[in-house]
Each structure stands twice: as C-alpha cells, then as structure tokens.
Amino acid sequence: MTNRLKEDLIETSQFGRTPPKKIESYDQLDPEKGVVRPDGTEGNKKIRDYTVARMKEAGLQVKIDKVGNIFGRKEGSSTDKGTVMSGSHLDSVINGGMFDGVLGVYTALEAVRRINDEGFENERPLEVVVFTGEEGSAFTPALLGSSVLAGQVSVDEALNRKNAAGQTLGEALENIGYKGSFESSLDDVEYFVETHIEQGPVLDKEGISVGVVDGIVGITWIMATILGEKNHAGGTPMKARKNALVAAADIVSFVNQQANEMVDKLGSATVGTVGKLNVFPGGITIIPGKVEMGIDIRDVVPKNLENLENEILKAMEDTRKKYGVDIRTEVQHIHVPVTPSAEVVNIIDSSASQVGVTKKRMVSGAGHDAENIAEKVKAGMLFVPSVNGKSHVPLEWTNWEDIEKGAQVLTQTLKNLSWR
Ligand SMILES: [Zn+2]
Predict the structure, then answer these.
(1) Are 58 and 420 in contact (CB under 8 A)?
(2) CA within 20 to 30 Å of 51's CA: 44, 102, 248, 366, which one?
(3) Is beta strand 126-131 parallel, antiparallel or unpaired with respect to 70-74?
(4) Exposure string (b/e) for 59-95, b if CB count within 10 Å is 16 or more?
C-alpha cells in the first residue's frame, strides 16, 4: 500500500501553522496552535500551490475558475457522458484543524491516482475539485465557491464580498494568483461525492470506519429580543417586576426540552441550542430590561424543523403573557434539509461492502459544499471518524487507518460511478 496520501496530508499540515510544523501523529498536535488558512492568506496560497502541483504531477488538466475554485480533470473513454466530480475545500476556520476539507480534496486526488496506477479505464471523466471559501472565515457567506458553481450566487456578487480588512475576494484571489478566467458550471457534471471528517463523535465511539451520509440537516435561526423593564434589584418588589432574563430562561429550557422530547419520541436527529445570550444592562444590582437571544435548530426532516420552529414561537407567546414582557423575533431559514441522491448513497454503501470496510448510514449535522451541489446534480457524502468528535479546533484528528479506509471506499465509489 502506498503512503502517498499520508505524505500529502502531513506535508499540507504545515501550511498556515505558526511556526510551520508538519504533524504526523496526534501527540504532535498543540492544543493552542492550529491552522489559519482563510482565502487570501499566505497559508491558503501555499496549500493551493502544493495541491495544484500534485494534480499536475498526477497528469490532471488544471483549471481555475473566476472565483478561485480549482478543477483537476482526467478524461474518460467516453466523450459524451457527464463527469464524476469529487472534492472539498482547503480553507480553514481561524485556528482550525488539519483535516477539515483537506481530507476530501486529497482522498479524491488519491482515488484518481490509484485509478491511474491500476490502469483502470474510467468511462466518465473524473474531476477533483477544490472549493473557495467553504468556511466563510474571510468572506461570508460560508460555502461561497460551491454556491457560485451551483448558480445560487453570481460571480460578481462573490468577487465583491469583503473580508474584515476591507479587501474584496477578487483582490484577495488576484494577490495569491488564483483569480482564474473561466466561468464554471455543473452542466456537464453527473455525480458528485465529498469525503469529509464527521465532526461529531458517532463513528469514533462506535468504532466504524465510514459513515454513509443519507441526510444533511437544515438549519433555522430564531433571533429574539425580549423586552422587560430594567429597575433597581433592591427597591423593586418581586411582584412588580418584568425581568427579561427570567423570561429568557424559560425559553432556553423550552428549546432544550423540546428538542430532547422530539429525539425521544421520533428518534429524530433534532438538535436545538441557545448559543447566544446578551443581557442588558448587565449589572448585578439591576433587573435585566432586555435580552438578545440566538436559537439554532437543526433537523434532516423538513416537517420536524418546521414543527420545532412553530413550537418555540408558541412557547414565546406563552412566555410573553406569563411575564408581561414583549418579545420580538426574526426567523432566518439558513438552509433547508438536503437529501442526498439515493443512487449515490447506495453506490457508496455497496462500494464500502465491496472493499470490506465497516460502515453505517448517518446524517450530517454540519453544512458542507455537497449540499449546494446536491441541488443541481446527484450528490452524496461519506464521513470518516473524528477522534473524540473534535473539529474546528487544533486537536482535530482522524487516525491514518481510517483515512486509508475512506480512500478505499471513495476510490471504489468513483470507479463504480464512472461506469454508470
Ligand atoms: Zn469542511
């Protein structure tokens, strides 16, 4: 077995790390120092350069589109069948881990290299893709490169997005040499597969090497402002208060309890989190007059997500009456749930059986480029375990044996898809 994939992942682990250091094992990770590779940074340029060089070395034709997405193509024996595309992203969150995104790009590249080595004849063309700005860590919104490819965001809109320093994406790409000239589309793409780290604890805990993703959660945010009356904590009798934080506490509990109940009753993948709470004026001797709250709810079943949203809004109405406060809400439907193509899911599943790798069906609780691509072409995802369920932190890790198994399943999947 070749260690080419492992060598590439060790090599890329130094980019965007200060000081640069190649990581080969979990115990070499520094819990404080991860990678910083938002688009336009030095680390981002280095990992792009390294990846393009590896693509060319593998004999792929490399093209960069107008928003910096990178495509490495191997033609197939047929000239009129749609492409099988696979890949992910190379940008990172600030102080993130070494595998998020990178693993999906390099397992795809390795799959094509193995297909070359074996002399396997692919009928459909194969394309390795690197999406710009998946994390939204420099240019919002997240999933920017794949949004352009899927036609949800225009090229100009994306290029004019600005980072915190006021630089546009267009300028940032120009600086690092990745402002390409062609306008990409999914018109000739038939299938898309993305390998990704799970970013959760399920596979690691159960000792299973590959997750076959059969649902990607939808995300809804409910932003609420609760208005009570600020007043003196000593002088105001208990019965004369309109405490915004006490009302907020009811809602925090309700979200947690309701999501738990849905999991118990429906066996659903529902999650509900109040992760943002600002209390005003925020003094120990003052009854809180205002609370701003951010609620994040997720589910793979559209109906469940809708029901939970409605239940929360109803509970807010009850809270409003109970405490005599005013509650203003703004609901943002961040992304609807995405169901991967059943055809692709089944092929990933049977490919895992074919190469003898343990697998389980599961849902993705995080957003990925695949959800954009899935709106246009038949798409699927496979997960490999995240040690201790950690991701978006320096201690993000996946064991080398699991990475190898993921690569084997992806290689088989691409072979199978290339002949459909
Ligand atoms: Zn990612």
Answers:
(1) no
(2) 366
(3) antiparallel
(4) ebebebbbbbbbbbbbebeeeebbbbbbbbbbbbbeb
Contact predicate 408/357, CB 8 Å: yes
Q: What is the mean pLDDT of each run of 10 residues along the chain (420 residues)?
A: 87 97 96 96 98 98 98 96 98 96 98 97 98 94 95 96 96 98 96 97 97 94 97 96 98 98 96 95 97 96 97 98 97 91 98 98 91 95 97 96 98 97
- Secondary element (H or E) of residue 231: strand 231-232
Residue 379 Rama label (left phi>0; alpha psi -120 to 50; beta): beta
- Ligand 1 centre to CA of 79 (Å) is 32
Beta bridge partners of 221: 296, 332
Distance 397 CA to ligand 1 centre (A): 13
Question: What is the residue whose two structure tokens read 């959800």?
Answer: 371
CB-proximal residues (5 Å) to ion ligand 1: 100-101
365 C-alpha to ligand 1 centroid (Å)? 12
231 CB burial (10 A radius; 0-12, 13-18, 19+): middle
> Ligand 1 centre from 390 Cα, in Å?
13
Q: Which residues have CB under 8 Å from 355's CB, separation 6+?
A: 405, 408, 409, 411, 412
The full DSSP string for 307-321 is HHHHHHHHHHHHHHH
CA of 366 to the centre of ligand 1 (A): 9
Helix (H, G, I), strand (E, B) or coil at 225: strand
